[in-house]
Backbone:
């Protein structure tokens, strides 16, 4: 396939995955805020930290109020990562590769985009300026975003050949997902408890639970573990190789996609993107949660992000530029 | 709502005779639409619009309030061409394409037609579409014009005329195909009852025509688009998708050892046939315009060496120059020994002294067009223009008479069209698409373009025109 097309497929999927993750972040945070009393300040700021867009946010808004954060993450035109911008860019990418995807995929994505665009218009005209709470309808909006992104994946799965286009889709989707899972886990680092005495308190556990929910992981987690425990949660989201949002699962998927793209199996000449992924996957497999916590979770997550960035640039080098 | 206040007097209406009776070909459609009633018709029309919006068949309008996406205006009342008329159109178009192709072969070869003084040499040499670089060129299978969209109009008496030939990158065929899909969903009962000739197989014809351009078995074919900002980008990607071939931009291509390659995730891959949707002179900065950012260096040389086939061949523009258009009946006679089946619209050449004086004196009654204009640009419709505009245009003509032709204002035929909640008459033209491969294939029907503004004769989509599905019955 054309390098340009591979790149667009990759980004189209990253943007859709990103939009889906953002919608979950916002929704879960909202649910959490309903459970908390007003003594917990700055409930919304960690979200902006988590996405890595704090500087941009601070330039544009004076305070991290719910309405500002929501607006910034969903509809802000100047935030390149807002749900609206992700959808616009996903669709622009799709437009340049339409001959490579099915009409039904394009239709799902196009309608998805039109939905977000129309909702944004409505929001800006009504709630946007003076609304201060997450309205019922915004919650519906966020859930529709998730459903649409999942229909897009379902539709891709069922209507295009599982060839190179498909494998570059997986590469984009799982690289983005791994990145977002590290950020979800890291969220706890930014959510300050009122005091150290609150470690292990109801509030602490509630926050860990909402973090699980942000990764749509609480049900699968509950099936495996009996109680809410930070170590178990981290283990589940980093090292569980059957849960589709865990880091290790995402890396496995990427390795497999890369193998299929190159048509090379282990033992044969390989490319640097594959090498980096395999080396990293093997490292993950050899790790356990105790050593991770010994190192410090936040530091460990930073390392993962660096690793992911390196894999990302190797993919760019190997496949997108020639 | 439907017919009661519809009037089409003093004009050729496709649906109604001057006496107000429906023409035979429209009988069933009229009855059916009346029985559906106005409200149902509006309902179906808006659901057709929604379908087009979902499919993303849109263009973007920029204005105050930011950008707005609109669908290509599409009208659900079909335009019907009776089969007995179509048979003649089909013959006439084939004749025209064959003759124009022989003309191109000759013009870039022996130039017999110039030596025999059928066409003045300076008219050819002064045409911007005439590319000296193409002299002596032998395109594969001696075919130059593989894809044509010829514009037809009816005069006041209902006779079809050729308004112009589009031999370079005619667009609109994707709308024909999409409109048809939407119409089938909108009026299934009409399709069940009427024997409407199908158009869905156009991409297959197009693909096999492109395959015919090379002897490579299982050739790599690409549609070459200027990119996503081109107004016809949707069509480029549509055709690539329907044919199952690559869609490439200039930056995806590279020429090495006079062969054309595209950049893929597995390295360079040779390209055998390119359906280019980019103008001749932008194709290759090393042979034509140096400033072209869209082009691919060396592709013309690769083409000349027979290492890649291009459709349409470079240089075809000379045959759709509007001045040369006026010679087409003579061209047909010269190469085929036949009279033209579909007549031209009478045309005045401003390069000829007598014609020029007539045009300057009668500009208020004429349509004047630039010889190489397209998309409704570079033209004036005399009766609709102000005195000042007429005077200004006269200066343009006097400064460069070779570049202008004039034609009488044709009272283009009309078709009933849904305008907000009324049915009104609107002017239309017709662009059938013709493919020249092993044989000549004429798509049954084509793009009916509608001038949506009341009384307007300008049907170009770049000037706010819309479209209708075109049905050839039988």
Residues:
């Amino acid at each position: 396939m054309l390098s340009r097309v591979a790149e667009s497929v990759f980004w189209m999927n990253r943007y859709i995955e990103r939009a889906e993750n953002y919608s979950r972040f916002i929704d879960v945070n909202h649910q959490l805020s309903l459970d908390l009393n007003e003594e917990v300040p700055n409930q919304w700021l960690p979200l902006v930290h988590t996405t890595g867009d704090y500087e941009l946010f601070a330039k544009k808004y004076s305070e991290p109020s719910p309405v500002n954060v929501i607006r910034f993450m969903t509809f802000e035109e100047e935030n390149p990562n807002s749900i609206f911008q992700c959808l616009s860019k996903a669709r622009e990418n799709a437009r340049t590769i339409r001959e490579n995807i099915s009409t039904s995929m394009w239709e799902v994505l196009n309608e998805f985009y039109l939905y977000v665009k129309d909702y944004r218009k409505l929001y800006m005209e009504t709630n946007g300026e003076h609304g201060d709470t997450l309205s019922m309808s915004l919650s519906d909006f966020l859930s529709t975003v998730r459903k649409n992104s999942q229909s897009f994946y379902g539709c891709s799965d069922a209507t295009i050949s599982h060839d190179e286009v498909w494998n570059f889709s997986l590469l984009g989707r799982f690289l983005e997902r791994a990145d977002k899972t590290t950020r979800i886990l890291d969220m706890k680092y930014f959510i300050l408890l009122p005091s150290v005495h609150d470690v292990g308190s109801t509030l602490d556990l509630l926050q860990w639970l909402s973090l699980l929910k942000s990764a749509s992981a609480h049900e699968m987690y509950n099936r495996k573990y009996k109680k809410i425990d930070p170590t178990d949660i981290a283990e589940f989201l980093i090292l569980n190789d059957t849960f589709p949002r865990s880091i290790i699962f995402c890396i496995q998927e990427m390795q497999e996609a890369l193998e299929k793209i190159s048509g090379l199996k282990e033992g044969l000449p390989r490319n640097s993107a594959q090498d980096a992924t395999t080396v990293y996957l093997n490292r993950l497999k050899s790790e356990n949660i105790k050593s991770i916590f010994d190192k410090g979770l936040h530091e460990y997550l930073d390392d993962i992000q660096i690793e992911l960035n390196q894999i990302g640039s190797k993919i760019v080098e190997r496949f997108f530029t020639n | 709502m439907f017919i009661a206040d519809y009037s089409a007097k003093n004009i050729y209406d496709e649906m109604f005779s001057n006496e107000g009776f429906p023409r035979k070909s429209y009988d069933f459609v009229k009855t059916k639409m009346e029985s559906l009633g106005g409200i149902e018709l509006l309902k179906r029309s808006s659901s057709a619009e929604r379908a087009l919006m979902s499919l993303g068949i849109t263009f973007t309008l920029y204005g105050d309030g930011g950008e707005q996406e609109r669908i290509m205006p599409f009208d659900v009342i079909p335009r019907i061409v009776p089969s007995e008329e179509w048979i003649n159109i089909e013959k006439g178009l084939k004749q025209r394409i064959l003759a124009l192709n022989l003309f191109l072969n000759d013009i870039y070869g022996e130039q017999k037609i110039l030596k025999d003084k059928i066409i003045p040499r300076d008219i050819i040499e002064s045409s911007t579409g005439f590319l000296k670089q193409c002299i002596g060129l032998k395109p594969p299978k001696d075919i130059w014009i593989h894809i044509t969209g010829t514009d037809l109009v009816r005069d006041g008496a209902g006779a079809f005329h050729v308004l112009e030939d589009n031999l370079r990158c005619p667009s609109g065929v994707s709308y024909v195909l999409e409109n048809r899909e939407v119409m089938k969903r909108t009026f299934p009962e009409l399709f069940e009852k009427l024997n409407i000739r199908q158009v869905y197989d156009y991409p297959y014809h197009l693909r096999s025509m492109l395959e015919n351009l090379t002897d490579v078995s299982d050739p790599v074919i690409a549609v070459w688009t200027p990119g996503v900002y081109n107004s016809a980008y949707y069509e480029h990607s549509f055709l690539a998708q329907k044919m199952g071939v690559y869609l490439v931009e200039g930056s995806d291509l590279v020429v090495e050892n006079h062969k054309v390659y595209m950049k893929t995730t597995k390295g360079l891959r040779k390209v055998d046939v390119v359906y280019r949707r980019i103008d001749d002179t932008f194709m290759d900065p090393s042979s034509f315009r140096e400033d072209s950012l869209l082009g691919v260096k060396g592709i013309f040389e690769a083409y000349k060496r027979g290492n890649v086939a291009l459709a349409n061949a470079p240089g075809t523009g000379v045959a759709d120059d509007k001045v040369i258009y006026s010679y087409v009946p003579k061209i047909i006679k010269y190469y085929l020994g036949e009279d033209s089946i579909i007549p031209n619209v009478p045309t005045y050449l401003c390069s000829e002294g007598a014609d020029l004086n007539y045009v300057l004196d009668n500009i208020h009654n004429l349509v004047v067009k630039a010889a190489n204009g397209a998309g409704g640009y570079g033209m004036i419709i005399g009766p609709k223009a102000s005195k000042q505009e007429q005077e200004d245009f006269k200066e343009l003509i006097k400064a460069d008479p070779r570049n202008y032709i004039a034609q009488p204002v044709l009272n283009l035929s009309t078709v009933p069209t849904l305008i907000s909640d009324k049915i009104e008459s609107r002017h239309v033209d017709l662009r059938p698409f013709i493919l020249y491969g092993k044989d000549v294939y004429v798509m049954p029907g084509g793009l009916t373009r509608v001038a949506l503004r009341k009384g307007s004769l300008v049907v170009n989509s770049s000037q706010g025109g819309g479209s209708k599905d075109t049905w050839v019955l039988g």
About this structure: The radius of gyration of chain A is 20 Å.
